[in-house]
Design brief:
Elements lengths: L1 E5 L2 E10 L2 E6 L5 H16 L18 H12 L5 H18 L9 H14 L1 H20 L26 H9 L4 H13 L3 H6 L5 E2 L4 E4 L13 E4 L2 H10 L23 H14 L10 H12 L4 H4 L8 H10 L15
Antiparallel strand pairs: 1-2, 2-3, 4-5, 5-6
Helix pairs in contact: 2-3, 3-5, 4-5, 7-11, 11-13
Amino acid sequence: MFISKSKKSPFYQLTYEINGKRTTVSTKTANLQEASKFMTTFYEREVAPQTETKQPRYSEFKFILLSAFEKEYVEYIKASKSKSYLSSVNLSFKMLKSFTGDITINRLEVRILDKFVITTFTRTQRGASLYYRTLKAAFNKAIAWNYLSENPLKKIKVPKIAKSFPVFISFSEFQLILNNTKNDYLKNIFTTAFYTGMRLGELLNMKWSWIDFEQNIIKVQCTDTFTTKSKKERIIPMCATLRILFRNQFPKVSDLDQNNFVFTRVNGIKLNEDFISKQFKKSVRTSKLDDKIHFHSVRHSFASMLVQRGLRREKSVRYKWFEIVTIVKYSRQLCTESCVGYGNIHCEA
């Protein structure tokens, strides 16, 4: 059962099937939302009583437009997902609607979605993979909400993407990047990332209350305005290099509040992640290094450093404060340089 328009009439037409016979009836409206409501009412009044098949019961499923479902789904996951994931959801639905139109979700057949995935893959491989994963999760929730009887994306396979090893930075390359970075606060951010493996979002949300100078640790914490990617808090050992860096910065903070951001240009104002990432890229290009290097490469470099210092992969599993098992696996294959100059890194339990 679906609604569509034809050149013969300005109104949406409802096409339905009873016992193998397809029939069309006018919804008597040119408004898509009103036509969708008509379809629901018409089925319950006219079609359901004549339907011989009892399973699955079509009347149990609700008809909803993609745009309406997207709005409801985003509102549902907003409290538990990151802003970047929400952006991915919005983009995925935007791309799907531009391909299929704002149709009712029950009209998303395997054939249509398969064509959407393949067409997108020819244009952007990683984009197709992202849309597939995101929409598949959304359609699973649509099943729970009785909008779908099954997930059509489960019958579709996305072509595999060629995977390359993550790029990592040697100590000498990192020093070159620092030398080509003008602002001290940027140098401090880059250095902390290099010696802790912290993500950019964690660094920019870090507050002085996270730093314990007595125990030489950094406590990555979840707050009302920030949660870690894994939704878990963790403890990171603080090496001598960072202890000196933070101690030198500590006296410069006037009227110190433990809730102040460690890295900031104006007290109480958090730095923008995209801005910091672009500044790092600028320093990389000024240093004439591999253009594949980006801010997250610093996290890969930290993992490489741990492997070079003798950290075993199975041991890293117990180090929840590192959360780098996968990165260590890749880095073990890449490490060729010595660890001289990395600083007093805590690699032992």
